[in-house]
Structure formats: structure tokens, C-alpha cells
Fold these 2 entries.
Entry 1:
Amino acid sequence: MIKATFSAYHRQTVTLATSSHDCLCFLGGSRYSYPLSETHRKKFNLLKNLGSVHVIGFSADGRPRMFREAAHFYLLPQWPLPVLRYIEFFALAPLILLALIWRYRVNVVIAQSPYEALAAVGVKNLVRCWRYRLCLVVESHNDFETYLFLQRRVVWPGFYKRLMRWVARWTLAQADVLRAVSSSTQAQLQRYSHGQPLVQFAAWTDLESFLAAGQALPEKQPTILYAGVLIPRKGVHHLITAFGRVVQRVPQSCLKIIGRPENPTYARALRQQVEQSHLQDKVAFLAEMPQQKLCYEMAQSTVLVLPSLSEALGRVLLEAMATGTAVIATQVGGIPDIVQEGVNGFLVPPGDEQALAEKMIDLLQHPDLAKAMGQRGRAWVETYFSPHIYLQGYAQICQQCRQWCDASPGV
């Protein structure tokens, strides 16, 4: 049934192919594996309905790669230090983009953030000298003013804040179309915008596996689940402290923390926190896993918790809801777009460990409440996101770009 539903979405999307052939280039710091993961393959097979698609990003295995699979990929090696990655990206991405314009006539560049858009702004202004029309779309997937400082320690934070603010103002002034993933990122973009068209739709979420896992109706375990990268912004240290209080009231409960140690220092601190709290027998750290396995971890858990201090949307909440699992999240960023208090989950203030503990205890002690919330979340998420809605969003962006091109002098 689930596969049939997604096949129907795919048949609908074919009718959205653009009337004039667009050539799109996605530009950002995202990592891609070779071969592509299943979820990326689905995403770019969908997007090719808009025209030819090119992607400049980073290689998940650290090796430079160029291949074609649903789209054309040009992947840079991911060097270990962030400053080296920035130098690499801003030195090489513009050259690759120029080559793609020359060879494939790329006419739409979609930058993942105002900072990554810096690699495209110079190229846009250069080709303008040739009277070539290149439409720049700048997206916002995070609170771009603060997210860096919530991920790792930054030397000279005052200097970086001023620099980042200046770059964001400049690149957003150069943008022709803006795209937000939530109401909070939309509000932030509007503070910087110069009246450009702004399109809002959720980030790509491959729900097929999660819906299928939820349909299997697995028996729930007294498990609390966190799934995401291990960085300070995610607030996992608050979750561990709150869980220490949960164990005192619900001794049979356990906590699973699944994710990549993006910040190794922070990940080590989390393990030390567990040991110092004598929770080693109750807390399990699991490596990042493919969606086809993660979906069953979610489906078997009583509740998924996202204790973030800042979050643009919280895609993992959509995935958990699709499995029929209740969620608890902090009331930050775009999370209130997803979680309706007391309906499909609970909202707590960021950093409020007592409130978080009480909500987790409530769901663990009242499995019928958790089940009802999960069912309501599952019903709601199918109306909020679908491949068809996602493609419609980018089709609207392409339409805005064509309107901009028609109104601009060019070739």
C-alpha cells in the first residue's frame, strides 16, 4: 500500500515538468555517498522532472568523485578541518559552476545557505558581463545567524558574527529567489530580503520506509530515542540529565542515542556524562544507521525526543511521526510548525530538563496516550509532506526564476 501511494505521487510529478528546459545546479556542503543512498536517489530522480540537475557538494568517503546517478555529481574531498573545507569549497565550487554554465548552460543555481551562496555570487556577476542570465536561489535550512556557534567552539566569535552577518546581507541582496523550510527560517529571511519572491516548503524527507515500519504495528518498548548528529546545538546533554530523573520513576526505561559524532569533543563529553551519572546500563550509543534500519528503531520506541537549542524544522520528527511514534521536542525554530502540543506530541522550553523529564515519564507511564499521539502524528504527517508537495515547491521556484529571467536583460 505504501509503495503504491508513492508510485502514485511519482506519476503525478511527471506532469510538473517545466515547459522550458531548466538546467539546475544545487550548491552546498551536503555529503553524498557513491553509489547514492536510497533516499538521495529518490530525491534526485524526482527533481529531474524539472530538467537536468547538477550537484556540487562533498564526498562522504573523503575522495573526490564525479559521477551521474539521477543527477550529475561533482563531489569535493571532505578535508578534516572546517577552515580547510571552507577554503576548498570557495576556491573550487565557483570554477566547477563556471564549467557547468559553459558546457550545460546551467541557468538556475540553488545555494543551500546564504554563506554557501558566496561561491555563486561572483560567478553570477561575472557571467552577467556576457549578458548571461543566471538565477540565484538562496535557501535557509537553519538559523544561519547562530547555528555555527551552537555546533562547536569558535575562536574569535565576535569577529565571525560580524563577518557572517555581512556575508548574509550581501549574498541575500544578490539573490533572485529565496526559499525557507519553516516559518522561523522564513521570518529570518524576510528580515534580510529586498522584496524577492520567497517560497516555503519542507526539506526533503523520505518517509516511505518510516510509513512502512509504522504500518507493521510493532510492539512499543519503554525506550526513549534520540536520532541525529552529536553536536551541542542538539541539546543531548539536557536529554541525558532529564533521563536520569526518568529512571528513578520508570526503572525499566532505557535511552538510545543514535548519530554521528560530528563534534568528537562533545560526543566524548556525553559518554563521560553517562558514566558520571551511573547510567551506563540504561543508555546506549549507537552509530549512525541507514533509514531502512532507523525506521524500525523508531517504530519500536515509545517516544522520540529532539531536545535542540536551535532547529529550523526538525525532519527527524516527521520520520518518527510516520512510524506512529509520539514525539517530544523543544519549542524553538520551526518545530512548532510540526508538533501540536498535546495532539501529536509535547513541546518543552529549550534546556528545561525538569519539564522534559516529566513529559517522558508521562508517555512511558501512559502507553495509551503515547499510542494515540503517535496515530494522530502519523495521520497528520501524510498531509504535511509528500514527494508531490516537494516537487511542486521547486517547480514554483523554477517558475519564479523564469519570470525573473524574462524581466532581466540578457542573451
Note: The two ends are 49 Å apart (CA to CA).
Entry 2:
Amino acid sequence: MSDPYNSFDYVSAHANIGSPFWVPPWQTYVLKRSIPNSDDYDAIFVPPRAQADFHNVDIQAGLEFLRQSGLVSLVLVPDSVRYRVTRSDLSAFDFAKPFKRHYLVDNSIGSPGFTAHHRRVVRRAYKRCYVKRIDLSQYLSQWMAIWSNLIAKKNLGGEHAFPQSYFSELCAIEGMETFGAFDASDLIGAGIWARNGDLVYGHLGASSEAGYRAYSMYAIYDTAISYFSDCSLIDLGGVAGTSEETDSGLRDFKEGFANAYEISYLCGAILDRRKYESHCSSISQDTFFPAYRTPS
């Protein structure tokens, strides 16, 4: 099975972020973005994580390729779950700092041990809804209403504001699986998962207000974890923002299903310092990278 996250179709689905840019030394894509109010470009990883094996590629050669391509900066999150990347592997970047905790179901160390709370809520959820694998393309209008509800509820934007075309393209990518929760015939929640061989990623999930009342995501996760029990590792992902404390509900939800975790790292590189500093000349703080993209 091919890697759904490293396919051109998947990368090109992120037109709301940037355009596909192949990095030969890393054998993966990044997204090339126009820097506002300029003729310059920078790059970002393809969400949810950069699909390069930083154990076995020449990181410096990739950075030099991007530099010679005229890009100003690069920000990415390596796939520390798939490749078990550590901070010492990332010394070629200007910085590499702990970013998020990814909650895992590691079937190689035994069956997942749900918390008592999660077992109770899962039972309650199955009394209020039922879950099945679905062809998401048949439910796109219902799904877009559910996803829009999440965007509004969590005040999300930017890379999370996916247009319907993004989900349409996901439907055609090998390895993408969707589980839907239903109340009668109505879709009230769904979870999209990406399978790459023996590893599965929780990609995206959301519920309608009826889905929240029915605890639909508990039933969806329980169903998916059982369905993928033949895989050695299921990455449930982390929180939506950058802080577990500001999204403690999602943290507790995922942690209750997990039996292991892995830390991901946020990495950055300034490729053209003169241009970078020029774009940052009016920025009063540098806690965000790249600083010239600091949210207003």
C-alpha cells in the first residue's frame, strides 16, 4: 500500500495552504507559499507531518536545495511516530523544539487499555448511535456541515479551513478510510483515518451538536481501533492547537484510548537571512516562526 500522505494527489489537495514542491534529497514534498505583499516564497510541511525519514536522508542537502530554489524559510514537523525521530537527529535545522504529544495505540505491547471512564462512555455512545465504514463522497454535504460546526465551535481557521474540494480529493486517495456515526439515517459524526502499511493515523474527526450529545466520537474511535487491530501502531494524534492545556478536553479524550505516546518536534530553518530579516523588520516579537507570519 502506498503512503497516502506522500502522494501528489494528497499534497495538491492543500491548495488553500500552498503548492506542491518536491525536495529530491528528502524524497518528499513541502508546500511552497507566497509571502504576503512580496514576490518571495517560503515553505511549510504538508499537514499533518513531513513524510521524510530524517534518520536516513541528508537534511543539510535538502535545506541547501530549498535555499538554492530561492525560498526564504522552512517550517516543518517531522513524523516522529513513523520514524522515531529524536531531537539529536534534527541538529541541521536552526531550531528543533518539542511541539506536541501524540497519543498512540501500540498493539505490539498489548491490547489498548481504555480508562474506566472511556469504557463507560463508549457503552453509552453505542446506545445512542451506530458506526459503520462509509464512502465519504456519498456524505460530503452532511460532512461539510459537521466540519463547519467544528471550525466555528473551536474558532479554527487557516490550515483547518478546508474547502469541500479538499475532502472530495481525500475520497479518491488510497489508504484513506472513514467511519461515520449515525442517528437513524443522519450522519452525526465522522472520523477519517490514513493507513500506511502497518501504521494508521487519525487524520480528522468532527461531530454535529447531536453527535456531541450522543458521544459519537467515542464510538467512532472504539470502532476504528478495533478495525485497525491488525496494525502495530495507531497514531491518534495530538491536540488541535499548540498547548495541551488550552485543549484539555481533546487531550483527555485521546489519552483515555492510548497506551503510549511520542513527542513531535517543530523545526525551522532560515534559508535566506537577508530576506527573512527584511520581512521581519516591522515585527516586534519573535516567538512565532517564521516571525513575519505571526498571527494578527
Note: Residues 201 and 235 are 5 Å apart (CA to CA).
